[in-house]
Design goal:
Length: 109
């Protein structure tokens, strides 16, 4: 069964890049955050820690990302239960969570 990935991203270009990674790994992007297998979100959004805790209680894996100059937000996301990485690492981490091989330059961006 394909992994269902919820992308809570504000940047539409970045969202497209992440969606390409999901599709290349055989996964599906879903708008149903309650029915996803993996949730991906920006640590600078509203109520991030609460959202992460709500997902982890449901055993949904959470990948949080943010600016490397905001280690406090990345640390808070980790403490809430997410895997949290700087923006520069989110694509590779998502690919790893999906068990995907490198799909080539079109998904790497």
């Amino acid at each position: 069964m394909a992994e269902r990935v919820f992308l809570a991203t504000r940047d539409l270009v970045f969202r497209s890049k992440l969606a390409a990674v999901v599709r290349a790994a055989g996964g599906d992007v879903t708008a149903d955050e309650a029915g996803c297998d993996i949730a991906v979100l920006d640590v600078e959004g509203a109520a991030v820690a609460d959202r992460i805790r709500a997902w982890t209680v449901k055993r949904i894996r959470v990948l949080a990302y943010g600016s490397h100059v905001r280690p406090d937000l990345l640390r808070a996301a980790r403490e809430a239960g997410a895997v949290a990485v700087p923006n520069s690492e989110v694509v590779e981490m998502l690919r790893g969570m999906l068990g995907a091989a490198d799909p080539g330059p079109s998904a790497r961006g």
